[in-house]
Amino acid sequence: MSTLDEPLHLPPQLPQPRPPAFPVLACIAPLVAAALIWLITQSTFALLFAVLSPVIAVASLGDGRRATRRQRAANSAERAAALGTLQQAVRERHDVLRQEAWRRQPGGVAILGECGTAALWRPGGDACVSLGTGRIPSGLRLGGAVGPADERALRDWAAELSDAPVSTDAAAGIGLVGPVVLTRALARSLLVQLCFALPPGLCHVAELPGTAWEWALELPHTTAARPGLPGARTEPGTRPACRVVVCECPAPRRGAGTSPGREHAAPGAARMMLALAETDAALPPGCGTVVQVRGPMQAWIVRSPGTRAGLCFRPELVAAEQAHPFARLLSERAAAAGLVQPRNALPDVVAFGDLHPPDGAAREATQAGRTLAGSTRSTLAGSAVQAASHVSATLDCVVGIGADGPMRIDLVRQGPHAVVGGTTGSGKSELLVTWVADMARCRSVTEVTFLLVDFKGGAAFAPLLVLPHCVGMITDLDTVGAARALASLGAELRFRESALRDAGVRDLAQAAALGIPRLVIVVDEFATMLQSFPELHALFVDIAARGRSLGVHLILCTQRPAGVVRDSLLANCSLRLSLRVNNRADSEAVIGTDAAAALSPSLPGRCLISGGEGEPQSCQVATTTAADIRGIARTAAPAAAPRRPWLAPLPPLLRLRDVCLGDDIEPVPTGSLILGLIDEPDRQRYRVARHDPQHDGHLIVIGDARTGKSTLLSTLARQSHPGQILRAAADPEVLWDLLESVATLIDARTGQPATAHTAHTAHRGQSGMLPLLVLIDDLDAVMARWGTEHQLAALDLFTLILRDGPAAAISVVFTVQRLTGTMRALAALCPNRLLLGLRDRDDHRAAGGPPALFAAHPRPGSGCLDGYRVQLLAP
Predict the structure, then answer these.
(1) What pLDDT shows up at residue 4?
(2) Please, how many CA atoms are within 13 Å of residue 675, restricted to the half-sphere of its CB?
(3) CA angle, corner 777, sides to 772 and 779, nearest 5?
(4) Does the CA dihedral 35-36-40-44 come out positive or negative?
């Protein structure tokens, strides 16, 4: 328990020492002693002891009284110290209680001083307001018995809290009596507090008297609450909205603010009176609290529910010059958050078809659609062909409806990159789909293409895949996929740089003849991607820095922008869009204000857009359906397949007939065997994986069981001439016989003329000897079944074959499961190494595999060759 929560008690009364009694024994004892001595000695001098009797008695009495005085003084000092400690503890409690009271009930002056940083319309706001500063009950009680008057004064002092807010419930109505200048100033403070605590949906200023209250006409509470906003109407479990009526009695009520309040007040709304009068009798009915204001420093409560009548306090006065900026600020915050219904109100729902009516070309030519930056304001006139003549230099599109009409944004002119923030359910995916769809609506694949990245499984972007502009979608990358992303997009940047350099231009907009479209990379759940793969951040920083001139644009979407999208990336993202976020920090990280944190959760798609200049603009994002996207795809101009900057992953099943050798791949030379396809994302291509036994030499294949080793040997056997293949089964005797026969053949070929072998002359090598391919499966597993002597002998034979085989036109392809022990020495004699799936990362690294290509769950036939991912042919 905190020391501030410990109970306080008055110090107990110490018992007072009683005054000493007369020392009778001290008087009698000397007399008795003197008499006994005289009886014994019969000396008169003994009678002198009797004289000591009164002396000792007086001395004892005086000493006792002095001790009593000292004890009383010590008791008084101890009690005074205890009372001082108690006073200090009470003072500390008072300080904490005073701070808590002002925090719960800030006055009008405090609100005006903090209006730029205070959290408006805090949850749980009520109609309790502070009238001023005075003494209120502290709720602090001192335990213990009450003694002298000073202790009673201490207990009374502890029970009251000075310089605290004197508050009352405005829902019962407040009447202010006194000079009109003072009552108006106090009423302004009360109205500021009400509008600060209650949002427009829960508080509506329905009536204002005269020109002295014109400042309040700018409050968002003087306009009708937006229909559909929680609190704007009475619902089960929802507090009804209240109508605030400000009147000056007996002056007639007039003012422009009266009509809107009466017109839009919710049915059954509570009526809250704030009346000003010079006398108590002039106040209208409905004033539960009446305050008499005598001067700028003195006022008291005439009556109030729950507050002591006659309580004197210092009223809190606010001038109209102070309240006017506050009203404007609240109006801007409410408009940005969509909490009021302005004259040009935003709709709750917008369909994609509403953005472009059937006569869209003519309407867009005559209607000025709202654009965020002045440089992007344009009028689309003429036919779609005329509009398309300038589209290569812009990505202007409409994403929703703003206060003045269609909301247009341009990723090229206002970007070149954009950041989108929004919590779950705020409409992020709908915004991205609408944005991409409208950019593709009137542009061909030669002008813009899209690469979609979705770390939520890809369901949000799935409807966009029917667009010919979409060149790929990436979902839920693994480590290998992240490496491919780095390589593929890096290659795309190099390709565009090379094309611009060859054309002698610095910007893609200056090289329309190249036919390179703008590439828009749309990333949903950007924070999730970076959390899983931090190395991708450097790639996106590089794209952000060079993307403008290369025609590559980023749209990065995340739930929590604060602390995720770093400054090095944000510096190039001038276009900012924020839907509803959970806290002020996320809102400020995207659009520079906390307005997005106040957006209503009942309005998905409500968005604030900042183009880098001026205040963020509010709009309602359009909802795009799959039918809308299919319609765009049907009307897209036919064109050749767009350039794909993202190389799709290798297929999981690859057959020999599926390996199509295009014009950019040289034909397979005679004698070369096809293994599969090599993935080269850094060159944005596939390459046929080949093996020429006579030119490439031996090949060792390393991999776990069921990873495709035996299938590879079968593939090589099918593509070779039957008379040129020797294949050993996984049997120790068969392998031993094969090794001996091959070693013998090598001795024969290297020691006899080549003309001794006449068969299949069409297939002879350059030396005239018939090429021979030896295939051995699971060499390490078979050798482990031999004894030590046979293992050493077989190792010598196999080493001879690997060393002298190429001179005899004999090459070997053998497979092993692990590269350990003797297998490592044999691998050193093989110039080629194919690494298939290894489930252990250390084994993968020991076998020489690139760390970035390790796959924890490899699929059959997937491996590494020459530092690239390879997919082998299936059976």
Answers:
(1) 53
(2) 31
(3) 105
(4) negative
